[in-house]
Write a structure and sequence with these properties.
By secondary structure, the chain is of the alpha+beta class. It has five helices and 15 strands. Helix 4 runs parallel beside helix 5. Keywords: Signal. It holds the Pfam family Thioredoxin_7.
């Protein structure tokens, strides 16, 4: 009986130790409306505490600290998005581009991106929050909304062009020869095309002119530089 009582007391103390006093928003549009109304920037936490060990450590190391919670509540609109809601992927995550859990971003009161401030150090986290408290962000479209280029052209080696077929494939035309590529993925730096027979991968720039190729050598992908290309069309964000 005594052991059970002590266990209950310990759990209560532990829950108090890691108590969350922050009134988190869970809806992006509501958080943005509050940010616009109050003139505050938005603190965005994307987390999966049920299974992600680094999310759990972030809770223990940073999010549970009184100094963090106090500064967040007084100066930001706090938005927490869990990986799942009612057993399904949280649709609110579609408002953000992120590479993994946990992710921590700052957005301004207009919903424009400021900075990624993820860290497990509470002093560094609060320091970044202070640094960007009154900062204005920049427009950054979601990856899913980006317009891909119509084509890329190059003059070296007799010239040629990569043509977007708008169906997940591209054609490399060099003279009378045509080679098909499969569109693998893209980010804010490169568009990646895979040779139809998986012999190599081409990285074409979303901005700029540098082009690269990866070939599989002894089980490892080895990157090399190719002559520059010129992007035709694409999202105005990269102009």
């Amino acid at each position: 009986m005594k052991v059970r009582i002590f266990s209950i007391i310990f759990i209560l103390l532990l829950s108090g130790l890691f108590a969350d006093t922050v009134n988190w928003y869970s809806d992006y549009d509501m958080a943005l409306a509050a940010a616009e109304s109050e003139g505050r920037n938005i603190f965005v936490l994307i987390t999966a505490p049920s299974w992600c060990i680094w999310c759990q450590r972030l809770e223990e190391n940073v999010l549970s600290k009184p100094e963090f919670q106090s500064y967040l509540t007084e100066n930001y609109i706090p938005l927490k998005l869990l990986d799942k809601v009612n057993g399904a992927r949280n649709p609110e995550l579609d408002n953000f581009d992120f590479s993994g859990y946990p992710s921590v971003f700052l957005y301004d009161s207009k919903g424009q991106y400021i900075e990624n401030i993820y860290t497990q150090d509470p002093v560094a986290m609060v320091g970044s929050m202070k640094r960007y408290k009154d900062s204005e962000g920049v427009f950054k479209p979601l990856l899913k909304d980006l317009q891909l280029p119509e084509k890329y052209t190059f003059a070296a080696d007799g010239g040629g062009e990569y043509i977007n077929r708008n169906n997940g494939t591209w054609i490399l035309k060099t003279g009378a020869e045509e080679i098909e590529y499969k569109q693998m993925k893209y980010d804010y730096e490169y568009l990646y095309l895979e040779h139809a027979r998986q012999e190599h991968v081409i990285a074409l720039p979303m901005k700029g002119t540098d082009r690269h190729m990866a070939t599989l050598q002894e089980g490892n992908w080895v990157w090399s530089d190719l002559p520059d290309v010129r992007r035709i069309g694409g999202d105005p964000y990269f102009d």
